[in-house]
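Sequence, please.
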C-alpha cells in the first residue's frame, strides 16, 4: 500500500467537509447501520463517508477511501453540557464554525477560534493528519455549552 498522501487527504477533506454535515443544505444518504445518520461524498478516486448516532450527545466516525480502500479515518464523541442551551442553536453555530476557512491546522474540524455575537468556538489539535487527537468546544457568553473529542489518522 502507498504511503498516506497527507496533502491529497487535506485538500479532499476541505471539500468533503463543506459538502456534508457542516453544510446545512447537504442531503443525508441511506443509513449504513441501524439508526445511523450518514453523509457521503465522492471526488475522483476518493470517497468520504461520515456516520454518526445521537443528537444532543453523539458519537460517530469518518472514513476516506482511495480506490475503494480505507486510507484515513477519525472517530468523535460530542455533547451539549448546558441544560438550557437550545440544541438547534448550538449545532447551527457549530455548522457555521466548521464552514470557516482556516490554515495551519489539519482540516478535520474547524479553525482554532471562531466568534460570532455571544458565541465562541475553539479547536485544539495535536499531531497531523497521519495521527492526531483534538478537542473542540463552544461557549455562549463565556459559558461552556458544548464539547467534542476526536482522534484519528492514516489506515494501512
Amino acid at each position: 500500500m502507498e504511503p498516506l498522501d497527507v496533502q491529497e487527504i487535506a485538500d479532499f477533506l476541505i471539500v468533503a467537509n463543506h459538502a456534508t454535515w457542516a453544510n446545512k443544505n447537504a442531503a443525508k444518504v441511506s443509513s449504513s447501520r441501524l439508526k445511523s445518520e450518514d453523509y457521503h461524498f465522492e471526488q475522483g478516486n476518493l470517497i468520504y463517508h461520515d456516520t454518526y448516532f445521537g443528537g444532543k450527545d453523539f458519537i460517530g466516525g469518518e472514513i476516506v477511501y482511495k480506490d475503494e480502500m480505507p486510507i484515513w479515518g477519525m472517530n468523535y464523541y460530542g455533547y451539549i453540557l448546558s441544560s438550557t442551551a437550545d440544541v438547534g442553536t448550538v449545532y447551527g453555530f457549530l455548522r457555521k464554525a466548521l464552514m470557516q476557512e482556516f490554515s495551519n491546522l489539519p482540516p478535520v474540524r474547524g479553525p482554532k477560534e471562531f466568534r460570532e455575537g455571544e458565541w465562541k468556538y475553539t479547536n485544539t489539535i495535536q499531531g497531523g493528519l497521519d495521527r492526531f487527537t483534538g478537542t473542540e468546544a463552544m461557549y455562549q457568553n463565556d459559558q461552556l455549552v458544548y464539547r467534542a473529542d476526536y482522534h484519528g489518522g492514516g489506515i494501512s
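Strands lie at 37-43, 46-54, 57-66, 69-80, 113-116, 119-128, 131-140, 143-154.
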